[in-house]
């Protein structure tokens, strides 16, 4: 569903991603983990078209989106939950979710969104800035889902969220995958979340994928070694 092939991305003269290859199957959840500064956020932003690639290709199904502007990538089925969530603090929960409807043929928020995130139904008239970190993350995911994506990207989804909520977010991702058949790619440093949510785990180090395992085959000590400073 999502294929990233020989992908190179630079900031100015400095190459950050050096030939990344990732293939996310339909209905699969893949985690990209690694320490700070290894290229996770650059990868997510570039897939979304916020940072251009120097070489390589990104395809959704059979469609090459490498050179498309961000809004066209959304139309082709990519949704993005950025690091820090970037919700609209002064808008209500309902208004925040409605911004994700742009480009679809829907005018109203589907009921299933509130079934997945019942707390957002209770708080739909509250301003987004008054929600907790975990509630804001649910809001950001809900906003992404109403665009009817084929692929959901999340950058550091547990950042600023209390530990008791992290497990709930993992369960939400797996439920979304199961109910909607989405492919999900997320970047993350919190190993417990990675182990709870992902079907396959990849490690990025200095802009290269250096390790990959199916969830059931993972040696946690090996992953801890990569994540240790």
Describe the structure.
This protein has a domain at 2-82 and 150-227: Rossmann fold, CATH 3.40.50.300. The protein has helices spanning 40-47, 70-75, 93-98, 111-116, 118-122, 133-145, 163-180, 191-197, 220-227, and strands at 2-11, 14-24, 29-33, 55-60, 63-64, 78-81, 151-155, 183-188, 200-205, 208-214. Helix 7 links the parallel strand 7 and strand 8. Helix 7 runs parallel beside helix 8. The mean pLDDT is 91. The strands form 2 sheets. A 6-stranded mixed beta sheet has the order 6-7-8-3-9-10, sandwiched between helices. A 4-stranded antiparallel beta sheet has the order 2-1-4-5, with helices on one face. With 229 residues, the chain is of the alpha/beta class. It has 9 helices and 10 strands.
Brief descriptors of the model:
single chain, about 230 residues, alpha/beta, Rossmann fold, six-stranded mixed beta sheet, four-stranded antiparallel beta sheet, about 35% helix
């Amino acid at each position: 569903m999502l294929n990233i092939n020989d992908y190179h991305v630079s900031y100015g003269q400095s190459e950050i991603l050096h030939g990344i290859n990732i293939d996310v199957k339909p209905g699969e959840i893949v985690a990209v983990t690694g320490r700070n500064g290894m290229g996770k956020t650059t990868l997510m932003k570039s897939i979304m078209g916020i940072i251009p690639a120097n070489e390589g290709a990104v395809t959704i199904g059979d469609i090459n989106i490498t050179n498309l502007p961000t809004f066209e990538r959304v139309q082709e089925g990519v949704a993005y939950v950025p690091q820090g969530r970037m919700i609209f603090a002064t808008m209500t929960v309902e208004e925040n979710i409605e911004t994700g409807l742009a480009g679809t043929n829907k005018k109203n928020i589907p009921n299933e969104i509130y079934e997945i995130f019942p707390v957002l139904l209770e708080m739909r008239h509250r301003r987004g800035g008054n929600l907790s970190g975990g509630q804001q993350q649910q809001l950001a995911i809900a906003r992404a889902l109403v665009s009817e994506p084929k692929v959901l990207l999340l950058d550091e989804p547990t950042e600023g969220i209390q530990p008791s909520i992290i497990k709930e977010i993992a369960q939400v991702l797996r439920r979304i995958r199961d109910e909607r058949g989405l492919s999900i790619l997320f970047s993350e440093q919190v190993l417990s979340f990675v182990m709870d949510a992902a079907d396959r785990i990849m490690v990025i180090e200095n802009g290269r994928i250096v390790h990959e395992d199916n969830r059931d085959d993972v040696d946690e000590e090996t992953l801890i070694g990569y994540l240790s400073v």
